[in-house]
Design goal:
The structure holds three protein chains of three kinds. Chain A contains nine helices and five strands, in the order H-H-H-H-E-E-H-H-H-H-H-E-E-E. Chain A is mainly alpha-helical. In chain A, helix 1 packs across helix 3 and helix 3 runs antiparallel to helix 4. The N terminus of chain C is likely disordered. The chains are: A mainly alpha, B alpha+beta, C mainly alpha.
Chain lengths: ~325, ~625, ~375
């Protein structure tokens, strides 16, 4: 194997200059080739001088590119001076990753995907500044040592998923968490108010004291999650899947839970006054002592649900299936 | 079933056989004719200037790899640079441009022809495109009516495999038979198209007194998409099966566009139609021989009968280097000879053969669709560099009375950023890295914002036939086989320039309506620069109506729709061939391709080329018997 | 293992609910071969082995078709997709065992090599039998039983093909017992048709009754093992369908020769094991042009805190998310297949990066895509 003593600092410098991590650069499969190209282009002395210098200062118009600018260009386009160094260098150009498209002629994204919103929009909306934190961690730059939960937050933001994460008290108000997949994580006290959580999966997680006011949770799956004391008032939980979720004492006043799947949910003592539970599935749910006053329970399925001590005054039970399997016979007395 | 590679033949063998038809050129025109004739039982020889190395998947993959490794990704980047059969690329030196304006443009002398690198749009022509002279006093009339073309368009759309919306096309004045749908559903419009739509559809435009509201409509395209369950070929059984990759063994690939965004110069998965798909079917009949690496240099005429007796050609060894012997001469014979080498090469061959040329029109009336480009940055990221290069366009000015005054045009929304106008995308990187000194995350973000919000509008304008626009032979400039290169005399008339100027204004208005930042700039040093001002610095009078007061000039780019060099017509006095593409002077010579088209309207030519090839093949079968 | 003479009452599939359970197992089986195929595919260096890439890719894509067909049958008989593809035991831990005969054999996540090709052939192994033996063995001669992991005394079907044979049998019998309409009670809107599923246009079968269900399941059997009658190397018995069965596609790589699916001048195809087509270009099949990925990579193989571990985890999470998108698409939102396919392509890019990245501390081995957390 060829001996490349400068490969590690070469990659570290390349990472700083390009804004991608060392592993990202290794993932191109071209690290060694580029090292060799630069070595040949600058000579041994030139390469060592380059590695000794930090990131370049600002250039001016019509300037001849500095050595570090030529290096950036190589990683981004595969061009050294004016020649493409290898066919793979075209396909692995960081340019394509930066703009989140495929290099034309390779790595196709799939039929019809050009009609969808570009993924770059979400990336830029989340902000690339957080990447600086990752690079700092990896390269040992100065900067505050990051807590474990910050790394998890980062992972959540980059990958839209997190398993076994520590997200306690995470500040995620009004976040775009569409389709996020969070499992077995701790979100105690997290602020998700006003967030977009459509089709999100927040399963088997602790959501105690989580703030979900005005959150959109259409189609969200909170199966097996612990939401005791959570405030979901005025949240949109239409079609949400809360099967087996623990929502004891949760504040769900006025929440839209129409067609929600709340089978086996633990809703004892939950505050559901005025909530919309039309068409929802509540089989085997525990609603003991829950406040369902003025709730809309039309076509709800409450077979085998526990309603001991539940407040049902003013609730609309037309066509609902009651715990004993009977169809309800209409409105209950007003409160 | 014969494999494609089984059909390759040596020149000695080809010279010793006697064919029903010799087809010169294995592009779309030649491959369709070969298929139709072979399926009807004729013995066909296809002679191709390029090498047949792309008949199998590994060979095609080499083209893909060559493309990846090319520093300059121009329209011919995937193909060998072949001194024995050189191809023009943009403004390279293959054409000898005698001016006053350069023709420029690209075509590909490879197996499959220019359909290897074409973008793939397949719009039909309009009825009035064939009646330009009688309706508007401009250009020429075709010797056939649109009604006669319709059934051939259906065959062409089936052969190519067109994805599109016939009903939407009908609203643009395109005609189809009753209830007809295209084989596959339209390519979905891009996110950029949909972002631009409100701006475009809020505007009206006026061209020579005709005012119309603008709309975005999708383009029919020759690339594989979702099969239309209601499609019936020629009214027969329902259904359509797309054709994928060309290979000797069956391979399940290339059956749907995957968004490689590389239509030009090569679709790496072969979801885009190219003529090899038709050629492979022709070869599988077992009645077609293929002689590759053979460039036709002369047609041998029998002056008594007026028949073409033989095609002389030169066979070279390798497409990668000049043949050391200047090619080995051979001659092949066929009862019928069909030229399908493209409009410029057909003309070159006809002129080199020093045929009588009674009409005097061989090489004359050369046309192309020049493009006016305008480009801007959208206020939001719209995802440039995704999907087929063009999915939607504006077709309101393809037809109408204004054509008595100035040219019809269509506008394309380009999904692939500014590249066509400003050059390689690496320049964007240079701008940010070298000019602005950006690096790290800041560079990443800036690149994303800058490139992904790029929009380019390309306005394709019609040029009417003009005799003085012509191809001649440059006897002092020869290629490696000793064939003279084409000398081009070309000028875009004011009739078309006025519409190009009007297009520039329309682009300004569209960008303004979309909140986009217009970055269009036409440097004077560009080879295709046209000044709009006279010596006194004032706007030339013919442009005042359409220009904005600050306009200096513009540049155009070639559309690669080379046409008109051997037009069809109603009589031998004013045309080279009849409506069946049969040469008036030589009854066994057929001139396939867009060289025979007297006008080109606002339609990319390939679909019409295909339709005319089917029609010519029918005529050959009916009028020349086989052995 | 002794063959049991089971009767209908002893079939492990009794009710429609059981049938649905078995179809979920079928989903697991069809999916289980995809990570091994993809891992081998991604391990090939770009630009090399283009024919091998084509063969493996085409088989992997057909497995996805099989998965889709199973889901169509499942939906047609009223199964609910929720928690099928996304259940925590959907993806096996590799090396995994597939029900292929008396001797279980394991399939791992390995790079492209002659051994890997041989393993792939075993997965798709056709059943060899003499001419006078029925092609689908009568029930009393096949080994029935629960599949691995479902109970003790691991018995298994002789082949995946026979597994489907039992499913088809019970489907047929249940229709007789309960009526076709009762069995096929699913929502037709959930069927995936060729509008959204492609790659083999016309191959997706919309299932709405016994005939179409059997058609779908037979397609899975035949594409894997070969047609039961006519030309054995074909993937289907329909006239004009000349695609090769998977087993024979892989065998081409092993023997270095293409099969002729139609010998020129005749209606014949090559006999099994004796391809007479063009040789695969010797220089193309280059087993050295392969990244040295660590076989059967586990999360524990990647050092804690390393970035490559984070990337591998990222792949695993995205792959799970992708299965979730597929599940949603199969659960009444077929248009979701378009973005799901987009996710699949993005996974490809991430996988490509992983196979090029050396594992810190094990410099001669590279990482690979990670499919499970175990």
């Amino acid at each position: 194997m060829t001996h490349r003593p400068h490969l590690a600092p070469f990659l570290a410098l390349s990472a700083r200059l390009t804004g991608f991590s060392i592993v990202d650069l290794e993932g191109t499969g071209l690290a060694e080739l580029y090292h060799d190209v630069v070595l040949e282009g600058l000579g041994q002395d030139g390469l060592e001088a380059l590695l000794a210098v930090g990131p370049p200062g600002p250039g001016g118009a019509d300037q001849v590119p500095t050595a570090s600018q030529r290096l950036i260009r190589l990683w981004y386009t595969g061009l050294w001076d004016d020649s493409l160094v290898d066919p793979q260098a075209y396909r692995e150009g960081l340019l394509w990753r930066a703009i989140e498209t495929n290099p034309p002629g390779s790595r196709p994204p799939g039929y019809g995907t050009w009609a969808l919103e570009p993924s770059l929009c979400a990336t830029l909306a989340r902000g690339l500044a957080s990447l600086v934190l990752v690079l700092a961690l990896v390269l040992g730059w100065g900067g505050p040592a990051a807590a474990a939960s910050d790394a998890d937050l980062l992972r959540l933001q980059q990958a839209n998923s997190c398993s076994g994460c520590d997200l306690t008290a995470a500040a995620l108000a009004r976040s775009d968490l569409y389709g996020v997949a969070i499992s077995s994580s701790d979100l105690t006290g997290a602020d998700l108010s006003g967030s977009l959580l459509n089709d999100a999966r927040l399963v088997r997680s602790t959501l105690v004291d989580v703030k979900l006011e005005n959150a959109l949770l259409i189609g969200a799956d909170l199966s097996g999650s612990q939401l005791s004391g959570a405030d979901l008032s005025d949240s949109h939980l239409t079609n949400a899947i809360l099967r087996g979720a623990v929502l004891r004492g949760a504040a769900l006043e006025g929440a839209d839970l129409s067609s929600a799947d709340l089978r086996k949910a633990q809703l004892a003592g939950a505050h559901l006054a005025g909530a919309n539970l039309a068409g929802s599935r509540l089989q085997n749910a525990d609603l003991s002592n829950a406040d369902l006053s003025n709730a809309d329970l039309r076509h709800a399925d409450l077979r085998q649900a526990v309603l001991d001590g539940a407040r049902l005054c003013g609730a609309d039970l037309q066509e609902a299936l009651m715990p004993d399997g009977r169809r309800a016979d209409g409105l209950t007395p007003a409160c | 079933m014969t494999t494609a590679t089984d059909c390759l033949i040596s020149p000695t063998e080809a010279a010793s056989r006697s064919y029903d038809v010799v087809v010169v050129g294995a592009g779309i025109a030649g491959s369709i004719a070969a298929r139709k004739l072979a399926e009807a039982g004729r013995r066909v020889l296809v002679v191709e200037a390029g090498a047949a190395d792309n008949l199998t998947l590994p060979g095609f993959q080499r083209y893909v790899q060559r493309f990846y490794g090319a520093t300059d990704k121009h329209p011919n980047a995937p193909f060998p640079s072949n001194p024995n059969a050189p191809s023009p690329t943009d403004f390279n030196d293959y054409f000898i441009e005698a001016g006053p304006m350069p023709l420029g443009g690209s075509y590909s002398r490879v197996l499959g022809g220019t359909t290897l690198h074409w973008e793939g749009k397949t719009p039909r022509m309009l009825r009035e495109d064939l009646e330009l002279r009688s309706r508007y006093g401009v250009g020429l009339d075709w010797p056939i009516s649109y009604d006669e073309l319709i059934p051939y368009y259906e065959r062409a759309e089936y052969e190519i495999g067109v994805s599109g919306d016939a009903d939407e096309q009908r609203t643009l004045g395109v005609e189809f038979s009753e209830g007809y749908v295209l084989p596959m559903l339209p390519m979905p419009p891009s996110f950029l198209d949909e972002t631009l739509r409100p701006a475009v559809e809020s505007l009206e435009a006026t061209i020579a007194g005709t005012t119309r509201r603008l709309r975005l409509t999708t383009y029919p395209q020759g690339r594989n998409g979702i099969v239309n369950p209601n499609y019936r070929y020629l009214g027969g059984k329902a259904g359509y099966t797309p054709t994928g990759v060309v290979h000797d063994s069956p391979l399940d690939f290339g059956l749907r566009c995957q968004g490689n965004a590389n239509c030009v110069p090569l679709c790496p998965v072969q979801a885009k139609y190219d003529a090899r798909k038709t050629l492979a079917k022709a070869l599988s009949t077992g009645r077609v021989d293929l002689l590759d690496r053979a460039v036709a240099s002369n047609l041998v005429l029998n002056p008594e009968t007026g028949r073409i007796e033989a095609v002389e050609l030169r066979r070279y060894q390798s497409p990668h280097e000049a043949d050391p012997d200047g090619g080995t001469p051979f001659a092949v014979r066929g009862t019928v000879v069909a030229l399908a080498a493209n409009a410029i090469e057909n003309a070159r061959l006809l002129l080199s053969s020093q045929l009588p040329n009674s009409s005097g029109l061989i090489g004359c009336n050369v046309m192309d669709h020049p493009f006016l480009l305008a480009w801007a940055l959208m206020p939001e990221i719209t995802g440039a560099m995704r999907g087929p290069l063009v999915t939607s366009g504006i077709g309101e000015f393809r037809q109408g009375g204004f054509r008595a005054e100035q040219a019809a045009f269509v506008a394309d929304i380009h999904n692939d950023g500014w590249g066509w106008a400003t050059g390689a995308i690496s320049k964007e990187v240079d701008e940010l890295v070298v000019q602005q000194g950006l690096h790290g995350v800041a560079l990443r973000e800036a690149l994303g914002r800058r490139i992904s919000s790029q929009v380019l509008l390309a306005f394709m304008c019609e040029i009417p036939p003009l005799r003085e626009n012509r191809v001649a032979l440059a006897h002092d400039h020869r290629d490696a086989l000793g064939n003279p290169r084409p000398e081009i005399h070309y000028r875009i008339p004011d009739y078309s320039l006025r519409s190009m100027v009007a297009s520039r204004q329309l682009a300004r208005r569209i960008f303004a309506a979309a909140g986009a930042d217009d970055h269009t700039h036409y440097p004077e040093g560009d080879p295709a620069y046209v000044s709009l001002r006279g010596a006194d610095g004032q706007l030339l009078p013919q442009f005042v109506a359409d220009a904005s007061p600050d306009d200096e000039g513009l540049f155009y780019r070639g559309g690669n729709h080379f046409s008109g060099t051997h037009i069809m017509g109603a009589s031998p006095a004013d045309s080279v061939c009849n409506s069946h593409l049969q040469c008036w002077d030589h009854p066994n010579l057929y001139l396939l391709g867009s060289g025979s088209m007297p006008t080109i309207g606002t339609s990319n030519t390939s679909l019409t080329i295909a339709a005319l090839s089917f029609r010519a093949a029918d005529h050959i079968l009916a009028n020349h018997s086989g052995t | 293992m002794t063959a049991m003479p089971p009767s209908k009452s002893e079939s492990p599939i009794q009710s429609i609910e059981d049938l649905r359970t078995y179809l979920v197992i079928a989903m697991q089986i069809e999916h289980a071969t995809i990570p091994p195929y993809l891992t081998a595919l991604y391990s090939i260096r770009p630009g090399s082995n283009s024919e091998a890439v084509e063969v493996i890719r085409s088989v992997a894509v057909e497995e996805m078709l099989h998965l889709t067909l199973v889901c169509n049958v499942y939906n047609a008989i009223g199964g609910t997709m929720a928690n099928t593809l996304t259940s925590s035991d959907f993806i096996p831990t590799y090396p995994a065992y597939l029900p292929t005969g008396e001797r279980e054999f394991e399939v791992g996540l390995r790079g492209f090599s002659p051994d890997t090709i041989a393993t792939f052939m075993q997965i798709e192994r056709m059943q060899e039998e003499a001419e006078d033996v029925p092609l689908v063995v009568a029930r009393q001669h096949s080994c029935l039983g629960m599949l691995p992991g479902a109970g003790e005394g691991r018995q298994s079907f002789y082949s995946i093909g026979l597994f489907y044979a039992e499913v088809i049998r019970r489907l047929f019998e249940l229709c007789q017992e309960l009526g076709e309409d009762t069995v096929f009670c699913g929502d037709p809107a959930k069927q995936i048709s060729q509008d959204y599923y492609y790659n083999g246009a016309g191959s997706v079968i919309v299932v709405h009754d016994l005939a179409t269900a059997i058609q779908a399941l037979r397609m899975i059997q035949e594409q894997g093992e070969g047609a039961p009658r006519g030309h054995r190397i074909y993937a289907g018995s329909a006239v004009g369908d000349h695609a090769l069965a998977h087993y024979f596609r892989f065998q081409q790589l092993q023997l270095g020769r293409y099969y002729q699916t139609l010998i020129p001048g005749s209606d014949e195809a090559d006999a099994p094991d004796a391809p007479t087509g063009a040789p695969m270009n010797g220089a193309e099949l280059d087993y050295a042009a392969v990244y040295p990925i660590k076989p059967d990579l586990r999360l524990a193989d990647l050092p804690e805190g390393s970035e490559v571990r984070a990337k591998a985890l990222d792949f695993q999470q995205r792959y799970s998310a992708f299965l979730g998108e597929l599940e949603r698409a199969f659960d009444g939102a077929p248009q979701q297949l378009i973005p799901a396919v987009g996710s699949m392509f993005r996974l490809r890019s991430l996988a490509d990066e992983l196979v090029r990245t050396p594992i810190p501390g094990q410099e001669h081995l590279h990482a690979a895509p990670l499919y499970t957390l175990t």
